[in-house]
Amino acid sequence: MDLTKEQIREIIGKRVAKEFKDGDVVTLGIGLPTAAADYVAPDVHVMFQSENGLLGMGNSDGACDKRVTNAGGKMVNLQKGACFYDSAMAFTMMRGGHIDLTVLGALQVDQEGSLASWLIPGKFVPGIGGSMDLTVGAKKVIVAMEHTSKDTIKILKKCTLPLTAYKEVDMIITERAVFDVTPDGLILTEINPLFTLDDIKSSTKAEFTAVLPA
């Protein structure tokens, strides 16, 4: 089934937000992962950290101070209690195990939990940013991405692009399915009702075990 970019963003954002726990400090990668900030449950208080030096980042809705942006350069508002700090402190937080959960996009992810997210063959990219630091330093790592890209399968047995991190991903969330990454391989735990198990198999090159609700 073909979904619009807006529908994909909403589906993934809502599902990612279910992983947030009250009191979490969360870092969202630029692009699609930021959609999760729009769907945090009312009774869950999350502090969003931006790697450019902001703790307590809000979303881009409503009045935004033009001087305040997230790591992707998009204007954002502030949560109550927000604070600013320099890049050294931002990366100390990321590397020091102070981030409860990070949500990142990916070009590829594999069944071992390795992630490739920074090098697009034939295209200029500005650099890897803080992805390496986040994947190694965060207590939980979620890859939030479209299941395929222009009919290219992104969930593989082994990543073929240069790695961002090796065996650090804990969960994969796409518009089609949710996988847990375990020492025994990928476990398919949820399927979007718009898709079937055969759809998931045909659009996934990784090996996985399906453990689905009855």
Task: Give the total of domains.
Answer: 1
- CATH-defined topology: Glutaconate Coenzyme A-transferase
Average of per-residue pLDDT values: 91
- Percent in helix: 10-25%
CATH homologous superfamily designation: Glutaconate Coenzyme A-transferase
Strand content: 25-35%
The helix/strand order is HEEEEHEEEHEEEEEEEHE
Straight-line N-to-C gap: 23 Å
Net shape = globular
Strand order of the largest sheet: 4-3-2-1-5-8-12-13-14-15
Structural class: alpha/beta
Largest sheet: 10 strands, mixed
What's the number of extended β-strand segments?
15
Low-confidence stretches: none
Radius of gyration: 17 Å
The CATH architecture can be named as 3-Layer(aba) Sandwich
CATH top level label: Alpha Beta
What features would you describe in this structure?
It is a single chain. The chain has a single domain (5-210), classed as 3-Layer(aba) Sandwich (Glutaconate Coenzyme A-transferase). The chain contains four helices and 15 strands. It has helices at residues 5-17, 87-95, 131-137, 197-202; strands spanning 25-28, 47-50, 54-57, 78-84, 101-104, 108-110, 115-116, 141-144, 148-149, 152-153, 155-156, 171-173, 177-182, 185-191, 208-210. The strands form three sheets. The chain has a ten-stranded mixed beta sheet with strand order 4-3-2-1-5-8-12-13-14-15, sandwiched between helices. Strands 7-6-11 form a three-stranded mixed beta sheet, with no helix packed on it. A hairpin with a 3-residue loop joins strand 12 and strand 13. Helix 2 (87-95) packs parallel to helix 3 (131-137). The model has no long low-confidence stretch (mean pLDDT 91).
